[in-house]
Amino acid sequence: MSDKAKIAVDAMGGDHAPQMVIEGLAAARVLYPGVRFVIFGDENVLRPMLASFPELDAASDLVHTDEVVTSDCKPSQALRRSRQSSMGLALQAVKDGEADVAVSAGNTGALMALAKFILRTMPGIERPALVAPVPTLRGESVMLDLGANVECDTRNLVEFAVMGAAYARTVLGLSRPTVALLNVGVEELKGKETLREAADILKQASHIPMEFVGFTEGDAIGAGAVDVVVADGFTGNIALKTAEGTARFMGELLRRAFGSSLLAKIGYLFARRGLRQLREHLDPNNHNGGVFLGLNGLVVKSHGGASAEGFKTAVITAIDMVEADLIRLISADLPDVPGHEEEAGAA
Amino acid sequence: MSDKAKIAVDAMGGDHAPQMVIEGLAAARVLYPGVRFVIFGDENVLRPMLASFPELDAASDLVHTDEVVTSDCKPSQALRRSRQSSMGLALQAVKDGEADVAVSAGNTGALMALAKFILRTMPGIERPALVAPVPTLRGESVMLDLGANVECDTRNLVEFAVMGAAYARTVLGLSRPTVALLNVGVEELKGKETLREAADILKQASHIPMEFVGFTEGDAIGAGAVDVVVADGFTGNIALKTAEGTARFMGELLRRAFGSSLLAKIGYLFARRGLRQLREHLDPNNHNGGVFLGLNGLVVKSHGGASAEGFKTAVITAIDMVEADLIRLISADLPDVPGHEEEAGAA
Questions:
Q1: Residues 26-55, chain A, touching B (beta carbon < 8 A)
Q2: Cβ of A121: how many Cβ atoms within 10 Å?
């Protein structure tokens, strides 16, 4: 089934676009030879690049647009004037049923705003959320919301938990992922009221294929203590970036440690194989592919700084989402959330 | 002046108390031979331990109490029944002017509650905050609030910035530390309204010896981009614990990398000196000593899991705070916050 996926691609978004986009698509196509691409962007630049990858070229339709969403474009600006951009057209292709999923490495805020405007939220979902895998000691967990919603209420958090669990079943391949709310302590009385209320609701949601385990703390993320870490978009964004920053900081200290003396350099040579595995495990390009959950259509967000390898990972995530029929999975779970069906009906 | 400091010590708080407390005090006394200690705890246990350190013994008064605040004690419980505990009595000694500062490695929530009740907040300060140094690529920054206040308003954040800057001048030895609010983006329009309002006020606070630089993001903490990172207690706690968890996770991956083969083990032997520096830089025992800011008295919180070395670091922090007269520093800055004096006067 994955071989039938049709992927709308914003070729112009990302720090190293469009070169890394085209190379990433070519690499993904080798793994999934039946997948088809609709590529949006500047034909004059893209045509010669595609010529270097004849098999990708044959599997792709190229749709020209001059318009690009810049990295400093505000969401409100994007809504006003970027509907015809490579990003906007890729989302429109999903809306029109011409593609199963859109992939972009462009401006996150603009992508969120355009996706919400063009695709709209799913029935019963108040706010979409951005979810992504994070590396842990046990492999990978997933975390959401990573910044789509700065302020969240109880209902948003409950929806994020249900959507995150569906995503984890797809991406992590688990039948019943563990889910927890990120808090300042694991005791029931800790933290904000919205978190306690969301926990009370999720405790009753035992029909959903997930294991709600209560609260988790910041230091449990790296340990991989739970499969799905749920937070409001402000907290999730701070936690994700703090983890990335700490990993970068330690990587730099490590680089300095190995450069500090001739002996240390020799040590590096001996240990480099083990260290390469460490680096690969932490490389953001190997964990690329955030997904906007809760929309009437699949949208995958690649890191802006992704390499071709990273963009390939994002495309594979997109194919996985199509294959798993993620939107149907989420729709199927939502009515099982206590009190949710009535609320959604009333809204 | 530091040689005259008198330190009230909760000898019973912390995972490895009281042994690490006594050993930590003995090590600190060697560095500051004129400092005096008032040690609160179980005489039957402490008397024989002190006998092993005759010089510490001579510099200390031992005050017996049977009562101990346990690690699972709730703040409300501590307030009801732990006033006569080793923790409560140490705080009371500061209140009564019998000591200049209290140091405890015990239960944070209980310490905060008891400290607030016994010492009260400074005139003009609405809420105390927990601040601590964090290791960065540039050395150390300080971050607050680390969990004393789950919900914060604009005024709280402004007070935290001013208090954090005074602490950074003392601990980091900077005359004009850079200060930023932790947010999901650096642009002025990003994040929560309380953050934007606090930024507007802090921009005008140019008389205070600090450089307010606006917003900072989670990944800038490890880079050491600013000296003082200001957040509400929920966000600060999540960021601190996420950073600690990520560092632990990477340390474990590194341990595995070096244990993965004989070659890797040989590599470790060559590189161990550089790696030891890395470990020392990250060792929480070298960055120990959170301080409760905003009370009518100095209170230093050691990590609960601190070793003797860590407790020594916390005691040195306490001596530094006394020497710098931190409370006076904060009091001197507060009236310079725009709109603060009137507010404080009206309250």
A1: none
A2: 16
